[in-house]
Amino acid sequence: MTDDRFDRDALKGLASSLLSRGGLAPEMAEVVAEFLVQTDELGVTTHGLSMVPYYLPELKSRNMTASGAHEVVRDNRVTMVWDGNYLPGHWLMKQAIDTCVERAGEFGMAALAIRRSHHIGCLSTLTRRAADKGFVCYIATSDPSGQWVAPYGGTEPLLTPNPWAIGYPGDGHPVLIDTCASITTVSKVREHINTGTRFAHPWMLDANGQATTDPTVVNATPKGSILPVGGVDHGHKGFAMGLMVEMLTQALSGQGRADAPTRWGGNVFVQVMDPDAFGGREDFLRQVGTLNAACRANRPIPGGGAVRIPGDRAFEAAVRSRSAGVRMPGEVWTRVAACAAELGVSLPEPVAG
Amino acid sequence: MTDDRFDRDALKGLASSLLSRGGLAPEMAEVVAEFLVQTDELGVTTHGLSMVPYYLPELKSRNMTASGAHEVVRDNRVTMVWDGNYLPGHWLMKQAIDTCVERAGEFGMAALAIRRSHHIGCLSTLTRRAADKGFVCYIATSDPSGQWVAPYGGTEPLLTPNPWAIGYPGDGHPVLIDTCASITTVSKVREHINTGTRFAHPWMLDANGQATTDPTVVNATPKGSILPVGGVDHGHKGFAMGLMVEMLTQALSGQGRADAPTRWGGNVFVQVMDPDAFGGREDFLRQVGTLNAACRANRPIPGGGAVRIPGDRAFEAAVRSRSAGVRMPGEVWTRVAACAAELGVSLPEPVAG
Questions:
Q1: Which of A173, B23, B69, B172 is the least buried, fewest Cβ under 10 Å from its Cβ?
Q2: Residues A190 and A98 grouped into a single domain
Q3: What is the DSSP code (8-state) at residue A31?
C-alpha cells in the first residue's frame, strides 16, 4: 500500500460529503472537513481524514450530535463556560477559539471551559488558528468517561491521557507544542495491539504495578494502564500534569467524573493571550526567536539529527502539502474508501507524483 | 545532628532579624521571613529558613535589591507586566498574588508577567496563598541567565529547570502541585555533588549525549546537563514544558535570554482564576473532591503506600507544625546559626519535644 498525495480541496470535498451523507448538518460537515484536511496538511495523519471512519458510526449512534447549537452556560466576558451538547469538536472549537481571540484582543486574555464536546481532533491544528493571528493559545482536553492512566503509585486506570497543547507566534512559523500527560496515547496503544508489537520502552503498567512494554495489559483482567509522563521513576510529574488537565477541563467547566458520564465526551479548556497586552509583540518575538535559534544551534547527540522546535516538522509538512498535494497513508485511504463506497461518494484521484 | 522543632514566631523573628541586619528594608525582611517560615511549616525545608544563608550574600553583593519598589511596565487590568528590579521574590510575589486575586475577583481571571525578580522560593507556599482564598493559581519561573537543561536531542545546557506550580481548592485542603520541566533540580544536583553520591536513575546527560547517574557532569568540560522530564526515551515532553515556561516568563514579560543577562534573576508568570467566574465554586469542589477520592482509593502498587494527592504531605506537615512546632533539619540550623553568630542575632531555643 503506497501513500498517495491529493489536492486539498478534493480531500475537503470528500470529507465534507461523507460527513453530511452520514447525517451531519452541511455547515458543520464543511467546518469539520476543513480542520481534518488542515491536520493532514501538517502531517498528523492519525487525526486527519482518518477520523472520518470513526465519526460516521458516532453520528449514526447519535453519540455525536448532528445539528443544533451549544449552550452558553456562563459569559463573564473574560471567562466563559459552554455546554457543547456533544456537537462535533471541530465545529465547537472554531467558535471557541475565534471567541477567545476576540475577547483576548479586547481584554488581553480570555478563557473558556467546555463541557460535553465531541472529539476535538488535533490540538495543533486548533492552536495554530490563534497563533497564526499572533496570539498565544493553550488547549487542554479530557474525557470524564475514560480511564486509561493510573495515578502515580496506584495500579488501576483512572485518568485519560489528558492532551494539552500550546501554540504561539515564532520566528517564521508558530511554535506548536502538542503533547499529553501520559507517556503514550490510547491510539498508539491500539496501533501496537493491532500490529502485535510491543513498545520500545516500558510505557505500560500491568495490574500488579510492574512496568512493561506489552500494550495488551489494557485488555487484561484486572486491567493495566498507560504510565504517566516520567514513568516508574518520576511519574509523579506526569500525574501532576494529568490532575491539572482534569481540573481545568472538568472542575472549571462544572461537569466531569463526579457525574459519572458513560458517554464518550471531550471536556475542553481554551485560553488565549495577546502578547501586546503583556510586554508587546516585538519583544515577544525577539525572545522566542533567540531561544529557538539557540535550541536549533545546540550540538546534537552524536548520531542524532539537529534539535527541532515543536512545530518545525508540521511547518515543513505544510509547505510540502502546498506544493505536492496532501499525503494520505495507504492504510487511511483504504478505510476512507470503504466509507465512500458505502455512502456512494466518489473518490478523488491522486495528484501526479 | 538531630532535627529540632521551634516556635513559628520565634523562627520568623530570627529570619526577619537576620535579613534586616543583612541590609534588607525591615518591612521586606518581615514579609520574606513570614513566607520562609510558612515554607518550613509545609515541610519544604530546602526552601525555608535554609535560604537565609544564601540571601545574605546576595544582599551584600547587591544582587538582591534591598529597598525600593518594582516598576509597573503595563497595567491592562486583566494582564500586567512588572519589572521587579531584583527585589526579594517573596516581597514581589505577595503583591503579585494579591493583585491577581483582586483582579480575578473582578474579571474572573488575571495574569502578571514579572521580569527581573530575585528568587521567589517555594512555589507551593505562594500558590497556597490564593488557593486558601478559593482561587486557582498558576506560577512558572525561569532564570534567563542560567543554563542547566539541554533541549531534547541536544547536548549543551541551555534552559533552566523551569519550575511551575498550580494550587487550587480541594477537599479539606488545597491541591498543591509544584514541579518543574526537568527530572531533577539544580539544588538536588548540588546536594549529590556535595555528598559524593549518584542519582538512583540516569537523570543527567553527559556532553556526549549519554544518560548517566553522575551529577558531576555539570562541572565537566564540556559541560553535561540535567535531563528534561521524560529523560532519554520521552524527554521531548519535558522539553516542550520547558519551552512553554520560558515563553510565559520571558517572552510575555519582554525580557529574557535575548538580552543575555549575566546577573541571576527570576522571571515569573502568575495567573489566577476564580472558579465562580467559570462553572461555580460548588461544582468545582465536587469534581476535585471526586477525583481526589478516587485517586486515594486506587489500589497501590504492592509494597508501596497509598496514592497521595499533591499537597497531602504539605497539609500533614502544616498540622504537625502547628501542634508540635516547626521542624528545622540540623544541617540547616547549623548554617543559620553561623549567620546569627556573624550578625550578632540570638537564636531561639527549641520547643520541648
A1: B172
A2: no
A3: H
Give B54 to chain A, closest Cα distance, Å.
28
Considering the domain architecture, whether residues B128 and B268 belong to the same structural domain is answered as yes
Cβ-based contacts of B177 with chain A (< 8 Å): 240, 243-244
Q: How far apart are CA B256 and CA A57, in angstroms?
A: 50
- d(CA A198, CA A194) in angstroms, rounded, equals 11
**Cα–Cα distance for residue pair B344/A278, rounded to 1 Å:** 45
ipTM: 0.98
Minimum distance, in Å, between the CA of residue A299 and any CA atom of chain B: 5
Q: What is the DSSP string of A99-129?
A: HHHHHHHHHSEEEEEEEEE-----HHHHHHH
Q: Which residue on chain A is closest to B112 by alpha carbon? A: A278
Q: Among B241, B245, B239, B163, which Cα is nearest to B205's?
A: B239
Mutation site for B-interface testing, chosen from A100, A179, A212 by largest number of B Cβ within 10 Å: A179
Residue B188: give its domain's CATH number. Answer: 3.30.60
B109 within some domain: yes
The helix (run of H) or strand (run of E) holding residue A71 is strand A71-75
B residues 128-187 closer than 8 Å to A (CB): 136, 150-156, 158, 166, 168, 175, 177, 179, 183
Position of cell 540550623?
B333
Tens digit of pLDDT at every position of chain A (353 positions) = 689 999 999 999 999 999 999 999 999 999 999 999 999 999 999 999 999 999 999 999 999 999 999 999 999 999 999 999 999 999 999 999 999 999 999 999 999 999 999 999 999 999 999 999 999 999 999 999 999 999 999 999 999 999 999 999 999 999 999 999 999 999 999 999 999 999 999 999 999 999 999 999 999 999 999 999 999 999 999 999 999 999 999 999 999 999 999 999 999 999 999 999 999 999 999 999 999 999 999 999 999 999 999 999 999 999 999 999 999 999 999 999 999 999 999 999 999 86
Of A78, A151, A246, the CB nearest to B298: A151
pTM check: above 0.90: yes
Do B100 and B246 lie in a common domain? yes
- Any idea what the CATH number is for the domain that residue B32 is in? 3.30.1370.60
Cβ of B300 within 8 Å of Cβ of A153? The answer is: yes
The CA distance from A342 to the nearest CA of chain B, in Å, is 40
Measured in angstroms, the CA of B4 and the nearest CA of chain A are apart by 30
Cα Rg for chain B, rounded, in angstroms? 20
What residues of B are in contact with residue A155 (Cβ under 8 Å)?
298-301
